[in-house]
Fold this protein.
Amino acid sequence: MNLARLDPRVKLLILAGLSTAALVSRSYTTLLALLAISLIILLAGSIAPITIWMKLRGLFSLIVALFVLQCLFNRSGEPLLAFTKFTLITQAGFKTAAAISLRLLVILLAALIVTTGEARDYLLSLTTMKVPYEVAFMVLTALRFLPMMREEAQDVLCAAQLRGLQIKKAGLKRQVGAYSKIIIPIVAGAVRRAEDFSIAMEARGFRAHPQRTTMRKLRMRASDWLYLAVFCAIISSIEAIAAIAAFT
Amino acid sequence: MIEVNNVAFTYPHTKKQIFSNYSIVFERNEITAVTGNNGAGKTTLSKLLVGILRPDAGSIVIDGADIGRMDLCAIGKKVGYVFQNPDRQLFNDTVYNEVAFGLYIMKLPNDEIEQKASHYLSLFGLTQYRDAFPGKLSHGEKQRLALAAVLALGADYLVLDEPTTGLDIRRQRELGNLLENLRSGHGCGIILITHSNEFSSCYASKRVVIAQ
Ligand SMILES: Nc1ncnc2c1ncn2[C@@H]1O[C@H](COP(=O)(O)OP(=O)(O)OP(=O)(O)O)[C@@H](O)[C@H]1O
Ligand SMILES: [Mg+2]
């Protein structure tokens, strides 16, 4: 089913379900099954594979780095890859590294499912799930501020470099000094903007009335319920099978 | 001479194409005014000129050197750039340090830094704010500070993105005269993005309109 048409609450529940399942699962088969499910949800929801790749590309190096570090620093178990007498990778190390990477991947894919919706829909769904409007609004505003701050940081960094500041070729100590210098205007700018923002919000009547009404109402359709039911059934059966397998 | 050769540029996130096969030349010893509607791509062009944005195709060549292979520090030695938003380029604790920042990095002798920075502060009427925090200045004062900090470095080319916004009439005239002096005295090439017909017809010898 197309993810853009799915009720935002269902998407939030799927995110919660998939990431919880990924965190509690111990075996690879379970993790691989969860990975397959998230991929199927995305692909069946008409998200092109190339889009998934583009969005995850930046974080992929992080996963690989985590995998390598886990492999190298977990020293328990039989040697898997040895260099004469020196054990490079152990079986247990490889296993935990693979499990951690898989978990992270599942969580990232689940997060991608949520990015198919609009911010205001999630705001609406959080309030229908009894999260106070102020809190929901705050969380989403914080998320919206982040890319703005990043853009601003980039501009400041460029301005400093154009005035001669060496960042790329400098030593670590100078780099830290340079970056700490640049944090000042970014934080100052963010604080000032937050102040202006709150005044603008109050001027437009934010929290003027305790009871908020909304123009649009979210309504779970039959297809949304069905989707959620199928998802819950699949996840719980996977977890049940994993529990039985672990027991026997 | 800054040559823009067959440049194409699209913002990656929004897939919004701003230039496809755009070419233009900016000469030294000349003030070129760049105008165009809001959103036409003036700021985008100026950021391409100084390497903050990199073209998808084509090249930008400054005095025979392709800036595609240069980092921002190297480009900054040839071109001074003043952002449209002065907040995004002031990052020092005092007004004086803001102007002296680039001079310190150039490793000039201390007395020369002192003399140069003071000169530019007085040129832009900022001497009384010498020890103030730049974030606390008014918009027009920030704009003047940003200009002072970049002009003090004495680059051969200047790219100024709407430098007159927020300046009062007197400061605008002073800025115009200063730019004219830089051109006639040092042969600077100045690229001036502006919406003000009056300012550009007064000080610029050439005018470029960016169409959407
Ligand atoms: N970082 C960005 N990401 C995506 N699109 C952008 C970005 N910056 C600008 N744009 C878009 O590119 C177009 C050109 O922007 P630009 O800032 O170059 O215009 P401008 O000519 O400087 O306008 P103004 O007169 O308002 O300063 C605009 O439509 C703008 O929405
Ligand atoms: Mg602009």
The beta strands of chain B are 2-11, 16-26, 30-35, 57-62, 65-66, 79-82, 157-161, 189-193, 206-209. The interface with chain A takes residues 50, 52, 71-73, 75-77, 79-81, 83, 85, 87-93, 101-102, 105-106, 135, 149-150, 153 of chain B (CB under 8 Å).
